Structures are given as structure tokens and as C-alpha cells.
Here is the input.
Amino acid sequence: MHIGIVCYPSVGGSGIVATELGLQLAQRGHEVHFFSSEVPFRLREFHERVFFHQVETPTYYVFREPPYVLSLASRIVQVHRLAGLDVVHAHYAIPHAAAAFLAREMAGGGFRVVTTLHGTDITLLAQEPSYAEVLAFCIERSDAVTTVSRALREQTLATLGVQRPLEVIPNFLDCHVYHRQSRPEVRAAFAGPEEKILMHMSNLRPVKRVEDVVRVFAAVARQVPARLLVVGDGPEAPRALELAQALGVLNRVHFLGSQEDVVSLLSVADLFLLPSETESFGLAALEAMACGVPVVATRTGGLPEVVADGETGYLLPVGDVEGMAAAALRILTDPDRHARMAAAGVERARTVFCAERVVPRYEALYQRICGRRDGAGEP
Ligand code: GMT
Here is the structure.
């Protein structure tokens, strides 16, 4: 099939999942066309059957902001004329689903539109009167809509009152890439042999509650020698840094900024912290589990569908810093428990969330909405 993928290029779960999906589809013989404002993070190498179409937004003095949706819709239609797209798959509804809808209208219905809801497009933006109605409209008018967790599906039905079916297809990983490596030199760069390494990785926005990460770490570091790696960048970075200083742990916290090779870093971590306010899935938690890192996270959104509470980590109420610190210490001070949870995380990632298990579900969906009977998986 010829598949268009529309996504955000920056570091963030929806862009990572969209990019990985496109690469997996290309490996399975499909022709994949990415549409974004820049080359997506993680699409830096050449891949056969993968094309990238940059969306240019020419500016003009009457525009307050360049109308990206219009440029994106035009680009999709141009590529459709040349490549004959069967499906355009919009990742993150705003504004990608609207642009895909407009492009389909302009192309006389020449392709199908799939929208994948990822998280804050529903949990935050659906509450905004400026977006709610157009969001509901795009969801109703897509040929298929998926959500990355059951929790997000329920939330979408509850907040927008949409009538159409929403299919849950969970996020996934390339399990050939996400596995624990032996990296003693990376470990030695951050910690002494007696120190535990805790890690957090996100785009450091308020929803991630990065201050809770620092508070949990400070409580843990009072009991066991430890270091904290903070991977990613975002608006909460300065506050987290100030808090680490105020709590006297700044010399044990490493703010690493955005990193491409997260597997090397996860491979030296002993525990992963994800104390988010809301998390429709929690891709970072899954990446940690796949690399044998137990997770302490909040019981919110789709996280309970990813982290098996008591088996691959522990889930605590949002804001329960004390509880999360106690759970972290329970894991870090008990080598048997740690080993059990690490192994259970790897097992869960491999049996439920590997690309081989999940990508065929997207293929089957595309085939279904295109009315093909030639079998899922066939390009
Ligand atoms: O919704 C967002 O905050 C953005 C989005 C992203 O691009 O990072 O994150 C969401 O999508 C990811 C991929 O499906 C999920 O793993 C994240 O849980 C989800 N973020 C939130 O729900 C806060």
C-alpha cells in the first residue's frame, strides 16, 4: 500500500510512534510518505521505500501565524497526485486530522484517513472550546480512529461524546533495538559502583510533574547512595534544577537534555520514574521495561495498561511523593525483587508490545478501510 504519515517532528511520544510505524511498514513492503514541518526525530538515515515531504509555510504580512493546516493539506494532495496514496494516517488529532480531512475532500475522496489519538489532543485540548468541536468533527469524519490505550478511548467517548467506533491499538517498540546492553563505561560516567541510578525521560512539560521526580529522588538519596539522570528538555527544566538545588541534591542530578541513544542510558538505569499528572500510554515507561528497568509511576490514564502494578513496577496516586519514594526504595534495596521486576518488564514488553505484534493490526485496519481482501500485511 501507499501510506502517508502525518506527525510532529519533535521529540515526543506521538512523533516517535508515528516514525517507528512508518519504518516498520516500509520494512514490510509498503511505500511510506512522511509529512511534517521538519525531518522527524529518528528518521535521520536513508530507508528504502520511505519518503519525506517537508511542509513549507510561506509567510505573508497579513498572517498573524502561517496557516500550517492549509500548507499541510496542499502537500498531501500534491503527493497523492504523484504517488497515489491509499491511506493518510494522522498522528495527534490537532491539527493533523483536520488537514487530512481537508486533503481528502480536495482529492475527491481518493484516499482514506486514519486518525490516531495520542494523549493531550484529548486529555487537554478536548476541554478547550476553541478546539473541541473541530476535534469531534474530525474524529467523526475519519475513516478509522484509533487510541493508544483503553483509558484514552474511554476519555474520548466521555469528553467529546463521539458516536463512532474507536479501536484501541497500543503503542509498540522495535524489540530488536530496545533491550538491555552491557555498558559499564556509560554507568561509570555517572555513578560509582555503590550508587543506584534513577532515571526520568520526558519532554519536561508540567503534565510530567518533573518536580515530583526530583522530590522522590531526594527522598531516595537520603536512604541509599544514588544518582538521577533526567533525559529530555522542556519548560520545566529550570524549576527542576532549582528544586534540586534547594533540596541539596543538584550535584547528584544529571540533566542530559535531549538524547537520541536512549537505550544506552536506560541500560545503566536501576529504576525509572514517571510521576505524570496524566499519561495516555507512557511510551517512556515501556521503553524502560523493555530495557529491564522497573518503573515507579502514577496510576493514571493508560499507565496501568503498560506497567503491571506489583510485577513490573509500582503505581501510586498522582502527587504521592512519599509513596513513590517508598516504592522505589522497596525495589532498590531488595536485589531479588529488583531482578524479578526487571525480568517481568522485559517479558511483558516482548510478549505484548513488540512491533511484530502491533504493526499488523494497523495493516489490517488499512486493508479493511480500503476494502481490500488481499490479506493483512500484504503490500
Ligand atoms: O499528548 C501529548 O502530551 C503528546 C504526546 C507526544 O507527542 O509525546 O504524548 C502522548 O502520546 C504518547 C505516544 O502515544 C504517549 O505515550 C504519552 O503517554 C502521551 N502523553 C500524555 O498523555 C501526557
In short: The chain is about 45% helix and 15% strand.
